[in-house]
Design a protein that fits this description.
single chain; 258 residues; alpha+beta; Beta-Lactamase; 2 domains; 6 helices; 64% helix
């Protein structure tokens, strides 16, 4: 039965590895989807916030001169209490209106993401925060600036951790069920192979016992019929006889040389 349990352990470990890979990949995929949904929602909010600033920019007014700009940004921020800040920045990336008085310029990562978007709405996760923005179009198709929304990633991280816990629990239950189900399946499917292995292993053990007894000049008890291992027994006996004959020849040659 030692072979059976070794096979069972190997199968269980393989199942464990597969489930770990599945949980890891599923968690990564869920994290990507969750981040994308948050980013898209913030991009929609940024687009709505940019509308009055874009109207002013299209008629040639600087976005820094828009009246009630702080009220517009504050109203956008209050749509979700988790929003950290809403910024309006000019074409150079300098913040001209913001719900955060300490902010002066958008992060370098946001500048890079904006440049890569080439005018399309964009979102990125940087420094433990989600940032999402949209450009404000001015006259003659030029960019007058943009709107940037900053959002914490704590909610997304919590959701990812919760999903990981659920997947891990499901994986443990599946692993337990597979391990229990593998016992009868392996017993039935490998019955012949395990029986042959045990017969061979038993025959080798019997051969070792006969060799020890022979070396000790003890009486060798007849073994029961081994059935399918008769040929193996014969080969082992022949190998032992050859080994002993060779030993005697070497001993004789050594005596003659002396």
């Amino acid at each position: 039965m030692a072979l059976f349990w070794r096979i069972w352990v190997a199968v269980t470990l393989v199942n464990l590895a597969v489930l770990c890979v599945f949980v890891g990949l599923a968690t990564l995929q869920f994290g990507v989807i969750s981040s994308g949904l948050v980013g898209e929602r913030l991009a929609v909010l940024a687009g709505r916030t940019a509308a009055p600033f874009e109207a002013a920019a299209r008629i040639g007014l600087p976005i820094s001169t828009v009246r009630n700009a702080k009220a517009l940004l504050e109203r956008a921020r209050q749509t979700d209490d988790a929003i950290l800040a809403v910024h309006v920045f000019d074409a150079d990336g300098s913040i001209v209106h913001s719900t955060d008085p300490a902010a002066t310029a958008i992060p370098a990562e946001a500048v890079l993401a904006r440049a890569q978007a080439e005018g399309a709405p964009w979102h990125r996760e940087i420094a433990g925060r989600f940032v999402s923005g949209i450009d404000i179009a001015g006259r003659e198709g030029k960019t007058a600036g943009g709107v940037l929304v900053v959002y914490p990633d704590t909610g997304s991280v919590t959701r990812v951790r919760a999903m990981t816990a659920e997947l891990a629990l499901a994986a443990i239950l599946v692993l337990f069920a597979a391990a229990v189900l593998a016992v009868p399946l392996l017993r039935f499917g490998l019955k012949r192979q395990i029986r042959t292995f045990e017969a061979v292993d038993g025959e080798i053990s019997a051969f070792e016992r006969r060799s020890w007894r022979s070396a000790a000049a003890a009486a060798i008890e007849p073994e029961a019929d081994a059935g399918e291992t008769d040929e193996l027994r014969r080969l082992l006996d022949e190998a032992e006889a050859c080994y002993r004959a060779t030993g005697r020849k070497i001993a004789a040659v050594a005596e003659d040389a002396q």
